[in-house]
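If your schedule permits, I should be very grateful for your opinion on a structural question. Thank you for your consideration; the sequence and its tokens are set out here:

===
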Amino acid sequence: SFTDLRRAHSLFSLATPSAFNDLLIYKEQTGSEISLNIRNQAVIFAGQDYKLNTWHSVCSTWDSASGLVQLWLDGKPSSRRFSSESNINGPIIIVLGQVQFSSTIKRIKEFNVMDQDSHGGAFDINQSFVGMMSDVHMWDYTLSPCEIQNYTDDLNFTPGNVLNWRALLFQIVGRVLIEDKQKACR
């Protein structure tokens, strides 16, 4: 993701009828905190080097059997913490920039992202993300540190089996710009 927002904002929101923050990645107001909400339980990761106007790779892992969660920012792991030990069940709604994914694009998307305060709705504009996002993937298993590093370094990796950026069906609502991702010259 890439943004110049100084306020708190949502990066990823997955809701089910039983938990509106079943999986939420949320950048807190303070510049160094990112929270992961698993089954409505917040775990705050402090000391994150989240700079404005910079592309960041944000990854979270969660093992539903043990409840172990971890945040990876730009390929650097946080400490691991415990959260909910239950599975995500029921129909899911994933929201990125008011785009609801049902599960084809190799592009960058610029939009507003809001977290869901109910299953598929009750959005708060004051929590919205305004900026650019690319390459969102989700797996139904915990990635190894090597797999996360390959993804972060833009190397060969297995696309998400739950959410695959290159194979998304989505609906554009509002002011959204879709363009090819620009890579930095080396």
In short: The CA atoms of residues 35 and 44 lie 4 Å apart.
